[in-house]
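Structure request: Acyl-protein thioesterase 1, Zygotorulaspora mrakii.
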Amino acid sequence: MSAVRIAAKVLPANTGIVILHGLGDTANGFPRTIANYLRGIPAFEQTSFILPDAPISPVSLNNGYKMPSWFDIYELSAHPSRVDADGFMKSLGVIEKCVQEHIDAGIKPENIVVCGFSQGAALSLSSAATLPVKIGAFAAFSGFVTIPNQLRQIKKDHNLDTPIFHGHGDSDPVVPLEGGFIAKDFYQNDCGFKNIQFEVYKGMDHSVCPEEMDQFVKFLKRALKMK
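Returned structure:
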């Protein structure tokens, strides 16, 4: 598994965070930016990070151009008629491996977080329904739901009450806010998740903003019972 691994500033690590990038990005883009931001906060000095890299593969939406992608995208739609379920499930397996790597390093599952941006956010949300172990929290920046039919059939109940943070901009042209609301409704109503914090940021496009990062950090501290 190709990934950037960042050791805790103070050892031993007692918290582990997995961060997944979006389409066309790499571990050294958005994930490393978030990891570096958190590493500058004293509460996270014993946190280690795993930032996996998506494989380089053709993306149908971009005329088959090859780029880092967790799964193929055929159309930009809140209700796509065709999805890459196989690619999506394979990438969910990457998350499971990252979580297990943190556990094997001695980090308790309740101190592990999975988060991601865009494609990575879609995966982080879905992993809440598929991970075979209960962890500390999930977070999604501009997330959406991709394989609802499959998730209904395979979902597990380990993380039904695990805290989930989902932030979305109301001016997002890539993943419109409607897609965020659809994901929220799906995971609450269809999957039964009980602890979703959904935040909308006025004027924010397909990105993150300081207010979102501030709320994300507060969310993590609550979920992981940090001081």
